[in-house]
Amino acid sequence: MDKVQIWGETLRLIVELSATAAFALAGVIEAARKRLDAVGVCVVGFLTAFGGGTLRDLLLDQRPFFWVQHVEMLWGVLGLCVLAMAFLRHRHFELTERAIQVPDALGLGLFAATGTHQALLLDLPGIVAVLMGVITGVFGGVLRDVVCNQIPAAFHGHRPYTVCAFAGGWVYVGLWQVAAPGWVALLACVGVTAGLRWLALWRDWELPAWKP
Amino acid sequence: MDKVQIWGETLRLIVELSATAAFALAGVIEAARKRLDAVGVCVVGFLTAFGGGTLRDLLLDQRPFFWVQHVEMLWGVLGLCVLAMAFLRHRHFELTERAIQVPDALGLGLFAATGTHQALLLDLPGIVAVLMGVITGVFGGVLRDVVCNQIPAAFHGHRPYTVCAFAGGWVYVGLWQVAAPGWVALLACVGVTAGLRWLALWRDWELPAWKP
Amino acid sequence: MDKVQIWGETLRLIVELSATAAFALAGVIEAARKRLDAVGVCVVGFLTAFGGGTLRDLLLDQRPFFWVQHVEMLWGVLGLCVLAMAFLRHRHFELTERAIQVPDALGLGLFAATGTHQALLLDLPGIVAVLMGVITGVFGGVLRDVVCNQIPAAFHGHRPYTVCAFAGGWVYVGLWQVAAPGWVALLACVGVTAGLRWLALWRDWELPAWKP
């Protein structure tokens, strides 16, 4: 591998790890708000971090799961949950939630790209591939909210989140179909997803409300 | 194919499509009641329409999913959700719910038959086949209610719904075991399921209450 | 088979059946508390009894499910649910819940051992095997609570439950890696899991609270 490629791989790995950590932290914070016990905090952290990708692999019938191939991610998230319980206090929650918005948005884009990519490799149609991308990025949080007994924030928040991944997924599919190089499609998907998400947060965009 | 067969196929397709639409609409209405945002409305519509069949295919390890083979159904449900958000108003909800009872009951029977059939094809025992039929017909609504953070209506409503599919499934299994032609078993299963369901609605039947 | 082995097999079967019954009863009682109808009571009984093992088999891509191979267990749980609805009354609930603590703790250990064993057979890493054991033992109850629209007791109760299965799973993995005979590993896993669980109940142990 030449130098640029190594750089690219390293960057990708950093984004993936920090996004997984961001997802796990979002789960830990939600679990703490619901006053789960120590076990519940760890389980919800795991579900949020790995739930989306696992559901995608289940639907696409892919084995082994990514967290079976990279067992160190399991240990990492477990360690993160324990550290969070040791050091994170209520007054840090809001700050942490703001801090993880950056890796979270990047991760949403990266996971959307990964999910879409895997489905395209299996020759699935465009819309199915995009759905798999969305599921990878979003359903960790959905499972977290189901276990925490609340309506998933992704479907209730009126702040664009899922649609960003949806748009990014279509960008990936489009670039794939014109046979663009993989890193271009990846970058474009992450850029569009995270860009839209940041715009939505920055400009206070809201989904058009349906008042039936 | 002779003329009768083509007629039968067309009829079956009409029932399947209208039932899928009925399920999606039931999801959209529930999502609206819970004040989900536009994304949530679509996701819950998808879950309700495709959740049961997808869970059945997951359990039976069947790939590709039916909505991967018929991608136009995904587009159709997406379009339906958008149309519903554009034109459906609160005052239409009750009317719509009454109107979809007919395709919903027919669909419950058809989905029960399809699920039972697929399991029997895999040489699974009768009770497993019936369970797969029930799951196909009922678990879309269960997933909808789990995501909408309420106890599933199918387990809570005291109005027979799941049992109708259960009865229809056994009819299918019985006719299969005496090697009746497929269309007879299908018709009988749909007839028994939908018939019981309509009787239950019409005569205000309630499941025997357990007051422990 | 010599006499000891037959004895061992019989004992194992007794523990497995009584644990499944205990799980189903726990589901039935929860469903009654939430005032589900007769269908809901049976479904929640099934989910609690078979949900954990089914999720494990889904994740490990194992078919057929154990309840497809042993269809009589489905009939048994169905019969148990009907019997419970016929004879169980509110005033029996607390007594029943205390009575099922013994088979429940034994079953938690046995299911943890089974899940861990299956994953080790597939050459999965230790932590993944332990997770599969935990999922087998705990996720039936989690699914029950999700359907009953409450935060899973396993994550909220502050009484050690999941951690007992976690500890027992590691014992199994350790003994497997030193190539101890299967029945030793099984006994040790059940002993550690159930022993810890009973100690926790008897001594009123609580998980360290995280008050963030």
From TrEMBL, chains A, B, C:
Domain Glycine transporter, chain residue ranges per copy: 14-87, 102-176
Q: Where in the cell is it found?
A: Cell membrane
Q: Give the record's membrane topology.
A: Multi-pass membrane protein
* Stored InterPro entries: Gly_transporter (IPR005115)
Primary localization: membrane
Q: Which Pfam families match?
A: Gly_transporter
- In terms of domain of life, where is this protein from? Bacteria
Membrane-spanning residues: 12-29, 36-55, 67-88, 126-147, 183-202
Q: Which GO terms describe its cellular component?
A: plasma membrane
Question: Hey, which family's this protein in?
Answer: Belongs to the UPF0126 family.
The record's listing under PANTHER family reads: INNER MEMBRANE PROTEIN, UPF0126 INNER MEMBRANE PROTEIN YADS-RELATED
Name of the protein in its database record: Glycine transporter domain-containing protein
